[in-house]
C-alpha cells in the first residue's frame, strides 16, 4: 500500500489546480485519474473540440435519462476522461461569474464565498491579456483574446449596440466589478495556438515537483474507518489496490463522478443505497440532488455569402490552408472555439443579473450537429438561460463502479425556464434584424420565421436543444442540510472533502470553468490551513 498526505480523485479542472497548490506547500500528493495521458492532438488544437465531444476514449460517453420536457430524448452529456478532465475537451470560454452569483452563495450559508472573498482567487490563477486592475497577470493559466476577429464579429458588435446593448471589451470586467451586461468576444484558455487546459497549466508543474499520478485508474470507492476517510480503492490494469491518505481524501471527480463515488462508498440517500445493495455508511440525503446545468437552443441564420461565414474555411480542401496558417502564424479557424462572441442580457425589468446568454460564431451546422458544417454560409446563435430553476439528480444505476450513473438534469421542467428561453430567442431575432446586419444576415433557417408563438418557440427548444455542459451542485456546500460545510468538508465524515463543480450551491450565470478553478484555488488554502 502506498500512502500520501493528500489523495485527489480526478485530474480535471479542480484536481489539477489542487495538485499544484498542495504539492507546492511541500505535501505529498497522489492524483487518481480514470483517463489516460492527453496526447491526442485534438485536445490541444482549440477547434479540435468539435471532433472529440463524444470521443469514446477521451470522454465518459454519458447520456441523460430521457425526459418528456425535452422531447423524451437521451441527450449526449460529455465529460472529459483524460488528464485535464473537462478542461481538456471544453469550449475554452473563460468567464468570471457575476458578483451576485457568489454573494447569493454567501447568503445561502456559504460563509467566506462572497464575491469579495472569491474574486482574488480568480485573479490568482490566471495570466490574462487584459489590463483591468482586477484581472490576474501572473497566474499559470493563460487567458487570451481571440487570435483572429472574423469580419462578422465586428458587425455583430455594431448590431448589439444598435439594439441598445453595451459593448465592453472585457467580458470579465470592468463590468465584473458591478454586474455584467452586453456584447463582447469570449476570452479563451489558450496559450498561442494551443489550448491551455488545467493539465497543461497546473498538473504539468505538479508532476515535475513529484506528484504521483495514477492514470487509467478507476476509483472504486472511498475507504472509511471509524468515520474517517483513509484512502481510495482503485482498479488499474485489472488489479485493485488501495492508495492511502495520511491527511485527507479530496474528491475532484466532477459533478457526476463525485456524487457517484460517494454513493458507491455508502455515503448518500440511505434508501437509494439500500435499493442498490450498498451498505449505508452514512445517510446523506443531499448527495446527487440539486443537479443544475444550462440548456441551450441553437438557432441558425443564412448569411449573404461565404465572406461572412467560415463554413467553407472548415471544409476540405480549404481546411488545409488553415492547417498551414495555424502552424505558421498560430491563428485562423483552428484557434476558434464554439462561442466566439456572446451577449449577456436582462430580458425582464428589475433583474439583478443577466438572465440570458446568447453566444455563437460565424459557423452553422447541418441539422444542428456540431462538427458537420452546412454547405451554404451560415451563423449559429446559442440561446440559454443564465439561472435555471429546474433541478435534476445523479443516482446509481448499479452498485458496479464501471456502470454509468443515471443522469437526470430535468431541463425545462420549470415553467420559468421555458419562458426565459422564449424571451431569449426573441432577443436573438431582434439582434439579427438590427440595421448593421442588413445585407449580411439573409434569413432565419432554424427554427424559421414560421415559428412564432411562445409555445412553438419552446417546443423547438425542447425538441432540439441540449446541455451547455455545465453540470454542478450535486454535492453542494452550505448551511445545515447541505452535504458540505463551507470548508467543503463532507458533514459527518472526517478527512473527506469535495472540491469541484459539485460543491456549487447554485450555478453561476455563465460558463463555469473559471469558477471551478477559483473554488479549487480557495479550497487549497482551506485544506492547508486545516492541516
Ligand atoms: C464539451 C464541454 C464544453 C465546455 N465548455 C466550457 C466553456 O467553454 N467554458 C467554461 O467555462 N466551461 C465549459 N465547460 C465546463 C467546464 O469545462 C467544466 O465545468 C469543468 O471542467 C469541470 O471541472 P471539474 O474539476 O468539476 O470536473 P472535470 O474537469 O470533469 O474533472 C473530473 C475528472 O475526474 C475524473 N474521474 C471521474 N470519476 C472518476 C473515477 N471514479 N475514478 C477516477 N477518475 C475519475 C474524470 O475522468 C475527470 O478527469 C465545458 C464542458 C464540456 C464537457
From TrEMBL:
Coiled-coil segments on the chain, per record: none
Pfam families: GMC_oxred_C, GMC_oxred_N
Keywords: FAD, Flavoprotein
Cofactor: FAD
Domain Glucose-methanol-choline oxidoreductase N-terminal: 254-268
Protein name: GMC family oxidoreductase
Organism: Falsiroseomonas tokyonensis
